[in-house]
Design a protein that fits this description.
6-stranded parallel β-sheet, 3-stranded antiparallel β-sheet, 13 strands
Length: about 425
């Protein structure tokens, strides 16, 4: 039987994160958790990050904020005031998780450090997401997404080898922050699992620097074990030795990314040879010496280089879609190089229901959002609603959960607490 509730519907999460960590709350909220975004009066600073709907830079129209805060509620609360801290401590009594991304020591200075909150709720889990962690010589250093990618070694592996003296390049799309957020989400759920068995919460110290430093693919192992530094290469994996170009232009101008070549299995090699023969390309590839490239670790650089020259000729004579479909039929992991705009037209994504229409009542219409990379067979995933407006759930949270009166809310509002 398929449940009507999400996998995490029994979790209540208080989200104090900025742009470094707000994706964690989205991941949990879209899986059913009751995530309450706690913003300062006037709204979270991340609401000022563009791009904006129709280029109108209003805090309610940040597309960045929209995406990273789906399915959440929003309350406003001034944690720099004694009354605000007291209200937050009340909220944590029934909460399961607190997410925060303040600099080390800030939560303690406000009186809401984990040590204090765990006295109120011993089952509480707090996940702190910072640039460099809560301890260590870098703990007070400032960071940004691009700094995180640079410091952790990711950027050194990204760039071009066919442009002389070209600098390293950052991956786009807040890749540094999002990687840290994925590790934060996984570790938070592991802590929930532990708490369910033991009844004990814990503090999780997530360092974006460390999350990225352990995802540098082969760069660290090569240096640890062989003292060799990998070199970045255009559109392909970094390597200690140069590898053939991987991107080739088809007859219609489309680009194909070639991977898994020479093939690692004989049946794929036979299929590729048949394709070459049909196109009357590379008769020398039919010789046994090329056959020996299949599955071999030590390969002749000259033979491999010539093979890729022929691959370029093969691709140049057909449209990108023709090449892609035929390569996949053979079992070759070749792919189309698409722009984000082209991905919106991907029939496969639409068939799997990846794109989700999210209503925006204030705009009088729905907007299409990227969905989840997973499908739950029992507990449905879903974007419950669009990102909240600033403090739109104040009445519900403060009156229903904390039992405050309308007069209390008016007083707190006039005092700048909410």
């Amino acid at each position: 039987m398929i449940s009507s509730v999400g996998a995490l519907n029994d979790l209540t999460v208080l989200d104090l994160t900025d742009e470094k960590g707000m994706y964690v709350g989205k991941l949990l909220a879209d899986m059913g958790a009751n995530v309450i975004k706690v913003e300062p009066p006037g709204g979270d600073s991340a609401r000022t990050i563009g791009p904006f709907l129709h280029d109108q830079s209003e805090i309610s129209r940040s597309l960045f904020y929209w995406y990273h805060n789906t399915s959440k509620r929003s309350i406003t609360l001034n944690l720099k005031s004694e009354s605000g801290v007291a209200l937050f401590r009340q909220l944590t009594k029934d909460a399961n998780v607190v997410l925060e991304s303040y600099a080390p020591g800030v939560m303690e200075s406000m009186g809401v450090a984990y040590s204090a909150l765990s006295e109120v709720n011993p089952r509480l889990i707090m996940t702190s997401i910072t640039g460099f962690g809560q301890t260590g010589p870098y703990k007070d250093y400032k960071t940004s997404d691009i700094v995180a990618l640079a410091m952790a070694g990711i950027m050194a592996s990204c760039g071009y080898d066919d442009i002389r003296d070209s600098p390293p390049i950052r991956p786009d799309g807040m890749a540094g922050y999002l990687t840290g957020c994925h590790y934060a989400a996984v570790s938070t759920l592991a802590a929930v699992y532990y708490r369910d068995f033991t009844g004990v919460g814990q503090h999780i110290d997530v360092s974006i620097h460390e999350a990225l430093s352990c995802t540098t693919e082969a760069a660290m192992p090569w240096y640890f074990y062989h003292k060799k530094v990998v070199q970045r290469q255009t559109g392909r994996h970094h390597s200690v030795t140069s590898t053939p170009p991987a991107i080739y232009r088809a007859s219609d101008g489309g680009l194909i990314h070639v991977f898994g070549t020479p093939p690692q299995t004989m049946n794929r090699w036979v299929g590729l040879l048949a394709w070459f023969k049909e196109r009357a390309i590379g008769p020398e590839l039919q010789s046994p010496e090329y056959r020996e490239l299949v599955g071999a670790r030590g390969r002749s650089p000259d033979l491999v280089a010539n093979l890729f020259v022929r691959v370029g000729e093969l691709i140049a004579g057909q449209t990108a879609d023709q090449v892609y479909q035929r390569a996949q039929e053979i079992g070759l992991p070749w792919g189309l190089v698409r722009s984000p705009e082209q991905s919106l037209e991907d029939a496969h994504l639409w068939d799997r229901g990846f794109f989700v229409d999210v209503p925006h009542p204030e705009e009088g219409r729905s907007y299409t959002y990227p969905g989840a990379p997973y499908v739950f067979s029992k507990t449905p995933w879903g974007i419950g609603k669009r990102a909240p407006l600033v403090g739109e759930d104040n009445d519900y949270i403060y009156t229903t959960r904390l039992g405050l009166s309308e007069a209390d809310l008016r007083r707190l509002n006039s005092d700048g607490v909410i």
